[in-house]
């Protein structure tokens, strides 16, 4: 009887340890210091259709979206990349790209509230963005 109890406890402890193991992450976070400005859905700040981003997404006031400079796009801040911005709560998604003249820069979408965008101004901030790692299971 004692042997059966020992075996059951041993098997139970092995099973519990497997459940405690953290699942493999297929991403990592990178940090970069950028200039952050803000923009609005107005024709004077965008193009002929101010409520559509460069990737074809509808830009809706209240949503946490950003535009990125093309150099940041090449570093991995692709469409729908989650981004944490120093000083702001929550995750923002890359939904737009900026003109090629801008470097190392993000533009925070602030809907139609021009006063909020002006109040934000231009700041140097650290941002964290998620990079997908290659799928190593296919290499085996």
Characterization of this structure:
With 140 residues, the protein is of the alpha/beta class. It has a single domain, classed as Barwin-like endoglucanases. The chain has three helices and six strands, in the order H-E-E-H-E-E-E-H-E. Strands 1-5-2-4-3-6 form a six-stranded mixed beta barrel. It starts with a helix and ends in an 8-residue tail after the last strand. About 4% of the residues have low confidence.
Tell me the Rg in angstroms.
Answer: 22 Å
Q: Termini distance? A: 44 Å
What CATH calls the topology is Barwin-like endoglucanases
Class from helix and strand fractions: alpha/beta
Mean pLDDT: 82
Core attributes:
Barwin-like endoglucanases, six-stranded mixed beta barrel, 140 residues, alpha/beta, single chain
Task: Give the topology.
Blueprint: H1 2-20, E1 27-39, E2 65-68, H2 70-74, E3 82-85, E4 91-97, E5 105-109, H3 114-120, E6 123-132
Parallel strand pairs: 1-5, 2-4
Antiparallel strand pairs: 1-6, 2-5, 3-4, 3-6
Quick rundown:
The protein is α/β, with parallel strands linked by helices.
């Amino acid at each position: 009887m004692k042997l059966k109890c020992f075996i059951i406890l041993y098997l139970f402890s092995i099973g519990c340890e497997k459940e405690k193991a953290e699942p493999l992450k297929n991403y990592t976070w990178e940090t970069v210091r950028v200039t952050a400005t803000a923009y609005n859905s107005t024709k004077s700040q965008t193009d002929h259709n101010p409520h559509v981003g460069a990737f074809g997404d509808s830009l809706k006031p209240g949503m946490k979206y950003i535009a990125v400079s093309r150099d940041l796009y090449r570093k991995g801040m692709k469409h729908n990349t989650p981004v944490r911005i120093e000083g702001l709560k929550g995750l923002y998604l890359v939904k737009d790209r900026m003109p090629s003249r801008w470097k190392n820069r993000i533009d925070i979408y602030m809907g139609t509230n021009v006063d909020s965008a002006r109040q934000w101004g231009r700041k140097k901030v650290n941002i964290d963005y998620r990079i997908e790692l290659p799928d190593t299971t296919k290499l085996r």
